[in-house]
Amino acid sequence: MTKIKVLIVDDSALIRSLMKEIVAGQPDMEVVGVAPDPLVARDLIKQTNPDVLTLDVEMPKMDGLDFLERLMRLRPMPVVMVSSLTERGSEITMRALELGAVDFVTKPKLSIQSGLLESTDVIAEKIRIASRARIKQRSAATPAVPPGGALAPLRNPLTSSEKLIIIGASTGGTEAIKDFLIQLPSDCPGILITQHMPEGFTRSFANRLDKLCKISVKEAEGGERVLPGHAYLAPGHSHLQLVRSGANYMTRLDQGPPVNRHRPSVDVLFHSAAVAAGKNAVGVILTGMGRDGAAGMLEMRQAGAYNLAQDEATCVVFGMPKEAIACGATHEVAPLHELPGRVMAFFAAHGNRAMRV
């Protein structure tokens, strides 16, 4: 069996030691090197040719983000960031994901040693997923808005929240969601989003999206009326659900047990959309590992929703979309850059008529 070669980069000797213990303890992984800073890491990358790099976001001698940006431009490879659970740490992590990091793990707030070791299975799984991710070479500058700008508003602007867009994503999803939302017009239908992400990071993610998009984006608080031109992101501590209150759609948060090992879970959101919105919803499933969202998207289709999936070529990890396609939950499969246009074209073509199953 070919083992996953992992290079560990962290300025903390304790973190390096703990990460080495975690990685070396996996039967399918080997530690090919440890580095206290990016300068040492640069030489070790040339010597060991690792499959995955774990990288601290705050590093001496060279900032972790500067190093990551150069790495993804000159020698793209899967990177899992190691981030602190602070507001600054979450903002830096969001930027790291924009630059091309596949995923991140968080340092515990209190006991680092026991906390990291308790997260052994999560860390190992993220490294495994990263080793299979599709990594694209980045240019020196990535435009905030794709060529052509945002999609034109609908000819008949939506004046109610009757139509909805329901989105689910996991690994690679932060960039995919950004690329999707950034193309939408300010009068698009209301949007609910579940992205697998821990508590403390979803608010930074929502704030970043809000600054980039024509629509308003916020972390869902529960009890909000879902409005056109607004997106509501599931907070890292709760499932996000869509509910009906009279003629209005509302958000609801639920701190019930994880579903498919996740809270928030895409299946929970999709199931609620099937029940509350039926044919008035369009479902979109984006890049991610596992099968969360497949069963819920099938329920959406059976309830009359129209569903789209990101294609394999543009996914970082073609897991969740693949499972949704395999179970017959989707109507269309398309590259990421085409999905917003297809969604808006569908709304423009169908208006208030029932969507076909």
UniProtKB/TrEMBL annotation:
Xref: NCBIfam families: PRK00742.1 (NF001965), PRK12555.1 (NF009206)
Record PTM 4-aspartylphosphate, positions in chain: D56
Reactions mediated catalytically: [protein]-L-glutamate 5-O-methyl ester + H2O = L-glutamyl-[protein] + methanol + H(+); L-glutaminyl-[protein] + H2O = L-glutamyl-[protein] + NH4(+)
Protein name per UniProt: Protein-glutamate methylesterase/protein-glutamine glutaminase
Keyword Hydrolase: yes
CheB-type methylesterase domain boundaries: 157-350
Pfam families in UniProt: CheB_methylest, Response_reg
Family designation: Belongs to the CheB family.
InterPro entries documented for this protein: CheB-like, CheB_C, CheY-like_superfamily, Sig_transdc_resp-reg_Me-estase, Sig_transdc_resp-reg_receiver
Subcellular location(s) of the protein: Cytoplasm
